[in-house]
C-alpha cells in the first residue's frame, strides 16, 4: 500500500511555520515529545512511546559457537523490523532503504561503541558464547524512529537478564530462572541517538522531528552520545552542507538531551526493579492506562459449565452414527484400487424414459425445421432482392436480414434454407 | 469422563484498549492474563493488481512474532485468523480493494491464537468495517486427567493432552473456525465446544461493555 502523499499546500504551510519558529504540535525548536518507557512481563522487553511514535524492543539470548576471528567474544545481533503496522508504506519481509539505514545506525550506535562487554558473554572459549539478539519492532511511525529505537534497544539491554551457566569439566549447564537468578549484562555506558532535522539548506534546525516534518526536511543529522558527553557515532544524511559551528551546536544540544533521557531510563529501570522485588504484578497488562475511555478491563470470570456434559452427550447421541462399513475397494488388476463401482445408481433416472423423450424432441425439431423451411421460401420469394451473389462461382456471400433471424426460430435451418434458395436462384 | 467444578474453568482477567495507534485505520490491544496481542488494520485501500479480486476485498493477515522472523507457526495462525475474518467481514461491499490486518505478539503466555482473534475483532470494530457478526476466540485444553481448562496459560498448555481453539460468532454462537492439537474423543470435542460457547458469551458481553463505555462519553 502506498503512503498518502503530502500536498504542496501542506509542504508550504509546514515550511512557513518552521520559518516562523512554530511547530505543528506547539513544541519549541529544541523540545522532545513526551517520552514514556514501559516494560513487558519478561526480562528484556521494553516499550518506548515518543509522542505518537511507538517502538518495542525485545532482547533474547542463545548459546552459539563464536566467530573464528574472535573466539572469546559474545555476538551482538540487531534487527530493526519495519512492521507494516507502523506505516502502510512499510512492506513485510523486504529490506527497504530506510530499514538498512536504521539497522546500520543502531549497530554503529550500540555494537561499534563497545557499550556492552562482549567478553563477559564467553562461556567456553572458541566453543560456546552467548549471542544476544535485539529485535526492535516499529509499532507506530510518527517520525524519529531512530531515537525511539535506540532508547528502546539500550533500555531493553539494561533490563535483560541472561540465564546463569555452570561449567563442570567439559559439561556446560544452563540453569533455569527458578534454579539460579539470571544475570544482567555488563553495560559500560548507554549511547543514545539524538536526531536533528535541517530545513532550507541548514538554515533552520529542529530536534526530534515528527513524521510531517521529516517529509519536508532537507537533511538529517543523527548524533549518538552517552552521558559522559562522548560521541559514539555521528551521521549526516540528505546531502546538506553543514558548517562546523552547526555541528558543534548540535552536539551541545545532544549532550543535554542525552543526560535527560539517561536519567529517565534509569528512573524507569529502578521503578521496575522495585516493583519486581516487591512481587507486584508488572508488565504490559499492568501498564495499560485505566483512565482512558477506549480501554476496559475485566476481572477473572468463571465460565458456567453445569449443563456442558449433557449438552455434549445430546449432540453426540443425536448425531448420525458414522458408517460402520467401509466399502471394500474392488481390485480389477493388481496395483489398482477402485471404490464405488457395481453399486446401484441412486439418481432416480430411468434410462428408457429419457430415450423416449429424446425421440419426441427429435421429431418435434424436425417438424419445426420443415415449418421454418416453408416460411423461409415464402419470405425468400418476397424479399429476394436482399440476397447478393458475388461474381465468383466458388464464394457465396450471403447477407441475412436481421429481422428475418428474429422471426425464425431454428437458426441453422434458416441458414440452410438461405443457401438453398441462393443456389436455386442462380440456376 | 467428568467435568469438574469451577477449578480451571474460568477466563483469566482480560482487558482491551482500542485506537491506541495513530497511523492504522483501526487498532486494538487485547490482553488475556499475561498474553497480549496488538492488532492494526489498514483499509479499505488500493490493492496490488496481482492480489486484486474483482468482486470482493482482499484480506491480508500478517502476524509478527516477538523474536525473529515469521515462520510456519505464524503462517498457520495467520491463516486461521484470515479465514475467520473472511467469514464475518462483508468483503463484497468493498470490491477491488485491500484490507490489511497486522498482529503483533507482545507477550505469549498461552492461548495466543484466541487472543489474536479477539484483538483482530476489536481492531476491525475500531476500523468500522462492515461485518455480518462479531467473533471471539476461546482456547480449551484437556489435561492428562481429562479435565477441561479454558484459557490456559503457557504452563497449562504444555502439560495438556489436547489443545483446541474455536472462533465463535456472536449471532448464533456457532463455530467459525477450529484449530486443534493432540488427541481427544468426539465427546470431549463436543464438550469443549459447549464450554467455548458459554465462555464466548462472557467475551461478547465484554465487547459490548467496552463499546458502550467508548461511546458513553463518560468514564
CATH homologous superfamily grouping of chain B: GHMP Kinase, N-terminal domain
How much strand content do the residues of chain A show? 15-25%
Number of domains of chain B: 1
- Which CATH class of the largest domain in chain A applies here? Alpha Beta
Topology as H/E string of chain B?
A: EEEEEHEHEEHEEH
> What kind of sheet is the major sheet of chain B?
5 strands, mixed
Domain module count of chain A: 2
**Beta content of chain B:** 25-35%
Helix-residue proportion of chain B = 25-40%
CATH topology (fold) name of chain B? Ribosomal Protein S5, domain 2
Please tally the β strands of chain A and state the result.
16
* Sequence of secondary-structure elements of chain A: HEEEEHEEHEEEEEEHEEHHEEHHHH
Q: Can you offer a commentary on this structure?
A:
By secondary structure, chain A is an alpha+beta fold. Chain A folds into two domains: 8-287, GHMP Kinase, N-terminal domain (Ribosomal Protein S5, domain 2, 2-Layer Sandwich), CATH 3.30.230.70; 360-426, no CATH class. Chain A contains ten helices and 16 strands. Chain A has helices at 8-19, 97-110, 145-159, 211-216, 244-277, 284-287, 308-318, 351-382, 402-407, 411-426, and strands at 35-39, 45-50, 53-64, 75-81, 122-124, 128-140, 161-162, 165-168, 171-174, 183-184, 192-199, 204-207, 219-225, 231-237, 295-298, 301-302. In chain A, strands 1, 2, 3, 4, 5 and 6 form a six-stranded mixed beta sheet that branches. The radius of gyration of chain A is 41 Å and the shape is extended. The two termini of chain A are 72 Å apart. In chain A, 31% of the residues are buried. Mean pLDDT of chain A is 81; it is low at 405-414 and 416-421. Chain B is of the alpha+beta class and 219 residues long. Chain B has a single domain (14-216), classed as GHMP Kinase, N-terminal domain (Ribosomal Protein S5, domain 2). Helix content of chain B is 32%, strand content 32%. A five-stranded mixed beta sheet of chain B has the order 2-3-4-6-5. In chain B, strands 8-7-9-10 form a four-stranded antiparallel beta sheet, with helices on both faces. In chain B, β7 and β8 (148-150) form a beta hairpin. In chain B, α1 crosses α2. Chain B is globular. Chain B starts with 9 loop residues before the first strand and ends with a helix. Chains A and B meet through β3, β6, β15, β16 and α7 of A and β1, β2, β3, β4 and β6 of B. β15 (295-298) of chain A pairs antiparallel with β2 of chain B. Chain A: Residues 413-427 have a biased composition (Basic residues). Chain A: Residues 349-368, 386-397 have a biased composition (Acidic residues). Chain A: One of its GO terms (molecular function) is mRNA 3'-UTR AU-rich region binding.
